[in-house]
Write a structure and sequence with these properties.
With 214 residues, the chain is mainly α. It is built from 10 helices and no strands.
Length: 214
Amino acid sequence: MEEDISIINSNTRQEKVRNFFVNNKNKIISTLIILIVILAGAYSYDSYKTNKKKEISDKFNSTTLTHSDNTKERTIQNLVEIINEQDPTYSPLSLYFIIDNKLVSNQSEINSYFDTLIEKVSLDKEIKNLVIYKKALFNADQAQESDLLNILNPLINSTSVWKSHALYLLAEYFYSKDQKQKSKEFFNQIMTLENPNIDLKNQAQKRLNRDLSD
């Protein structure tokens, strides 16, 4: 008797499973199709990103390796295109190559490329902070005090590893303007940081002792 009941229960369960699949066949098929499309899309997108990265890498390498006075305009065009691709690796490298080789003399144009990196490219936090510092460094010789402070404020108000560099740049900027009290204040801020750059802290101490002591 118990065996008969067990067989009946088993058959009932099988019948319920069968009925579930029959009644929900369309839903099940639709769900499977959606999953397949999602997986295929994810794979295609990943493949696209990989191929795009290689394309940008090849373009950067070929452009920089073949750069000469004769190819200057083509070099600029290619590197600007790479900057606008907003690639986390090669967009910053392209701008640095332009600056290091003095390919573009228009300061506003260079600043617009910096802004693209800072505002539009998905950079690691400290890489982004480095780009901000480099923008300040690029502008330091000609910038007004307010402009330089605006550029560096994100670093000054942070715990970034580039905070020491930002403070040191401002201290030297004010020292060059013969605003020694302001210079001293920024050098002193370096001295009070919990984790300053050691070399910059030593340089700040020397400057305070030698040129800014009371």
